[in-house]
Amino acid sequence: MLLYVRLLTTDTPMKTLWLIAAVLLLSACATKQYPQASAVTDQEAVTLNCQALEQEIVKTRHIQQEIDQTSSFDFFTVLGFMGDLGIGNGLARHNASEKAKSRLSELQALRDVKCLTTTDSKPQAKGLFHSS
Rounded to an integer, what distance in angstroms lies between the CA atom of residue 34 and that of residue 15? Predict the structure, then answer.
């Protein structure tokens, strides 16, 4: 505490060094927090019905929009760039985007398998079997 008070009351090169060190330390912690989407679990694959699948698809698309909004330019972008040239924020955004994209494709594939209506499958079935 005494060191802190002394640094504030004196104007020395040491004060400048401490200030630079504090800014660098804070900027290294400025990685943005992106929303995360988890992979579809086996339990979800079994229990989700068509309506729940549609709701999960909407939620995942909303997560993708949040990722885009979080990546907009702001104060944390500047601090992150000062700390690691923006690499940390770029990696965090890429990982979040890939997880969301993966979950969305899993949910859509599951919807395609579970939610085909009988009217959708009749034309396919007629094409498979030829009547004489």
Answer: 35
